[in-house]
Amino acid sequence: MAASYDVHTFPVMGRALEVPTAAPLIPPHPTLPLLREAAASCRACDLYKCGTQTVFGEGGKSAHAMMVGEQPGDYEDRVGRPFVGPAGKMLDRALAEAGIDRDLVYVTNVVKHFKWKPRGKRRIHEKPNAREIAACRPWLDAELAVVKPRVLVCLGATAAQALLGKTFKVTEHRGELLRSELAPYVMATVHPSSLLRAPDDETRRRETHRFVQDLSRIAPLL
Ligand code: URA
Questions:
Q1: What is the pLDDT of residues 46-88, one digit of tens each?
Q2: What pTM was estimated for this model as a whole?
Q3: Would the N or C end of the chain have less CB density within 10 A of its end CB?
Q4: Nearest to 212 by CA among 90, 69, 98
Q5: How many angstroms does the Cα of residue 28 sit away from the middle of ligand 1?
Q6: How far apart are CA 212 and CA 222, in angstroms?
Q7: Which domains are present in the chain?
Q8: pLDDT at res. 61
Q9: Which ligand 1 atom minimizes the distance to the CA of 108?
Q10: Atom of ligand 1 at shortest range from CA of 87
Q11: Cα–Cα distance between 123 and 112 in angstroms, integer?
């Protein structure tokens, strides 16, 4: 039988738009394994047709920090695990430099399927839209409710705006410890993939240093 999906209403150009969400798929007594299993068959938005598989969050239930990115990348989509490609390796290096034990970190994404368009033989990342983000949101809320991280880190603008509001600017507030009901400590910083796209080595070195500095601020909180 086809699953039915709750709707989420949000304003688009002055109109209340209703979109289906994953809410009805959340198990009544969620645990991370139950959530992962349920998310595997999510069809709340059309991205399941695009990605190879659902890429659910990963890390221990007793992780103290949750890092939220935008969506799985090409590599993550194939492997089925978040932050295991080039951006994930960059994140791992920065966490180590910031003195953060990777075992204390849960990594996930705002959207659990890879959205892409073909360019030649390559699959080029496409930003998820507001409908897709709204459809997927119940998974992230459930992960937050189960993991209950002490520190929540939004990696990049998509995660920051999804969690902290549409007008939030990472450029203005990166590295700040923010007040939010989502977790005792909340921070937004750049996405590690932006470091990989730096135009030259000097910029990459400088920006990586700033990223490590941002992460260093949460190390004593874990
Ligand atoms: N970028 C993300 O935002 N998430 C991943 O899992 C990988 C790359």
A1: 999 999 999 999 998 789 999 999 999 999 999 999 999 999 9
A2: 0.94
A3: N
A4: 98
A5: 28
A6: 16
A7: 6-221 (3.40.470.10)
A8: 78
A9: 6
A10: 8
A11: 17
Is the shortest distance between the CB of 82 and ligand 1 below 6 Å?
A: yes
pLDDT given at position 1: 44
Q: Which of 55, 67, 68, 71 to mutate to test the pocket of ligand 1 (most atoms within 8 A of CB)?
A: 71
| Dihedral over alpha carbons 150, 175, 169, 12 (to 10 degrees) | -10
For 100-116, the DSSP string reads: --GGGEEEEESSSS--E
Atom number, ligand 1, closest to the C-alpha of residue 107:
6
- Give 217's contacts (C-beta < 8 A, 6+ positions apart): 175, 177, 187
pLDDT digits (tens, 9 = 90+) for 78-125: 999 999 999 999 999 999 999 999 999 999 999 999 999 999 999 999
Q: Tell me, in angstroms, the distance from the centre of ligand 1 to residue 112's CA.
A: 10
